[in-house]
Design a protein that fits this description.
Largest sheet: 5 strands, parallel
CATH topology: Rossmann fold
Number of strands: 7
Bound molecules: adenosine-5'-diphosphate, zinc ion
Strand content: 5-15%
Structural class: alpha/beta
Shape: globular
């Protein structure tokens, strides 16, 4: 099963991705997580990407596409994958299609997590993440069992630098301008499904499963 999760920042892509990846045994591939890991390890990619992430801008297509081609060529992607945060531009989507065509594969489903703008802002500014294992929480909607500590690995959870008010606004603008055109792109390919993302985390996952149950591997 080859799935793309689409939706504005803060829609709940990463949260749903974790559940989908566990239920359907496909790797969860998040470009944001890959960039953040490289930034914390101060690799050359991390040093290059940091300036874009800090400002809420997109990392250049060429850099992002190369990383994803490498990642999708790995063994664990042979039976499918779940993309979270990629593609984010039409150029990236076309490059992905070209890459998959080359290995005689195609995307099965693009899930657009649909959440009104009014909810997004609260979701993003209340988000807290674990810098060690990447787990994501929300101070109100999905708090960890012990305040301030990751349930999985007990590290101190933190606010992402780009989840503060001013950068959030810039990221939503970037989504509207650069990523939203992908909705039309995938609609015309007949692979787009819209997931109601407004309910609680479990309800949204139920909506996702209802859509995915018709897909064969
Ligand atoms: P969110 O979960 O809020 O949607 P991500 O973790 O997916 O955020 O992305 C964080 C940042 O990483 C983006 O603001 C951007 O700078 C960079 N990034 C992630 N994915 C891509 C991509 N496909 N193309 C370019 N930049 C990306
Ligand atoms: P994305 O990957 O799309 O940027 P996340 O999955 O990180 O979004 O979710 C953003 C924030 O909203 C997180 O703090 C997360 O815990 C919270 N969240 C996710 N889904 C829901 C939901 N259905 N209801 C309330 N809060 C949610
Ligand atoms: Zn953790």
């Amino acid at each position: 099963m080859k799935i793309i999760l689409l939706g504005p920042p803060g829609a709940g892509k990463g949260t749903q991705a974790k559940f989908i990846s566990e239920k359907y045994f496909i790797p969860h591939i998040s470009t944001g997580d890959i960039f953040r890991k490289n930034i914390s390890e101060k690799t050359p990619l991390g040093i290059e990407a940091k300036k874009y992430l800090d400002e809420g801008k997109l990392v250049p297509d060429e850099v992002t596409i190369n990383i994803m081609k490498n990642r999708l060529g790995m063994d664990d992607c042979k039976n499918g994958f779940l993309l979270d945060g990629f593609p984010r531009t039409v150029t990236q989507a076309k490059a992905l299609d070209l890459f998959l065509n080359g290995i005689d594969q195609q995307i099965d489903k693009v899930l657009l997590i649909d959440v009104p703008k009014g909810l997004i802002f609260d979701r993003m500014t209340g988000r807290r993440v674990c810098p060690s294992c990447g787990a994501s929480y929300h101070i109100k909607f999905n708090p960890p069992k012990i305040e301030g500590k990751c349930d999985v690995c007990n590290s101190d959870i933190v606010q992402r630098k780009d989840d503060t008010q001013s950068t959030v606004k810039d990221r939503l603008d970037v989504y509207d301008k650069q990523t939203e055109p992908l909705i039309g792109y995938y609609k015309s390919q007949g692979v787009l499904s819209i997931v109601n993302g407004t309910g609680e985390i479990n309800e949204v996952f139920q909506n996702v499963k209802n859509i995915l149950k018709d897909i064969h591997r």
